[in-house]
Amino acid sequence: MSNNSVVGRGLYSLPQAARLLRIDTNLLKYWIGECKSAESIIPRQLQAEHVLTFAELMELHFIKLFRDQNVSFQAIRKAAKKASEKYHADYPFTVKRFDTDGRTIFATCKSE
């Protein structure tokens, strides 16, 4: 990987990201698939690195907010996949507004 591929991305070590998200580093590692028994809940831009990009950090922030409302990982994954396809975005929670009823996640429209 060339140095140019990470220029301007905003990179965060896993301990930094965990602190900003206010979660345990081991939980963060689980969420991003750095534990053998887990698959990443978000697409990773820098697979070989133990860092997160700003976009990944923001997507994880919204995932944490959903988890704080007791939304299951299954519901989060399903919503992220549908939204990613619909909005053509790797990190859909950061580009559209979403809400939850504690069970499901749904996109909301801004009133004009």
Provide a quick synopsis of the model.
This protein has 112 residues and is α+β, with helices and mostly antiparallel strands. It has one domain. The protein contains four helices and four strands; from the N terminus they run βααβααββ.
Description of the molecule:
The protein is α+β, with helices and mostly antiparallel strands. It has one domain. Helices cover 40% and strands 11% of the residues. It has four helices and four strands. The strands form two sheets. It has a two-stranded antiparallel sheet with strand order 1-2. Strands 3-4 form a two-stranded antiparallel sheet. A hairpin with a 4-residue loop joins β3 (98-100) and β4. The mean pLDDT is 84.
What tags apply to this protein structure?
112 residues; alpha+beta; two-stranded antiparallel sheet; two-stranded antiparallel ribbon; 4 helices; globular
Task: Note the topology.
Elements: E1 11-13, H1 14-21, H2 25-31, E2 51-53, H3 54-68, H4 73-87, E3 98-100, E4 105-107
Helix pairs in contact: 1-2
What overall geometry do the principal axes of the alpha carbons give?
A: globular
Number of domains: 1
| Main pleated sheet | 2 strands, antiparallel
Roughly how many Å apart are the termini? Answer: 44 Å
